[in-house]
Amino acid sequence: MIVASVADGLVASASRKDYAEAAAVVLTENGDHVGKVNELSGDVAWNYHELASTITEIVGRDVVYTRSAPEHVLILVEYGPRRGHGRIRRGARGRHPRRPFC
User: Fold this and answer.
1) pLDDT tens readout for residues 19-28
2) Distance (Å, rounded) from C-alpha 102 to C-alpha 94?
3) Would you say the pTM of this structure is higher than 0.70?
4) What are the residue boundaries of the structural domains of the chain, listed by start?
5) Distance between CA 64 and CA 85 in Å, rounded?
């Protein structure tokens, strides 16, 4: 199961092999990449239902995407590994109670 609060967001994933090849080019070419930011992503953006379906095909067992409730962001804000991460993601939804699940 994939649980995320991405709503209808898309992901443009790529394989480790693709990322490794890109890193090798950046690290071995002379000077073209010095001081620049290289954003890496896949060629096609897909939704999380498509991602789960593809993972199902690869691993041979059912994987589903479950859209988490808005409270997921609150949990990230209150108990997440990096305080503030959830605040960035919740955008302009306004203030939330400090401990909504207590």
Assistant:
1) 999 889 888 8
2) 20
3) no
4) 2-68
5) 25
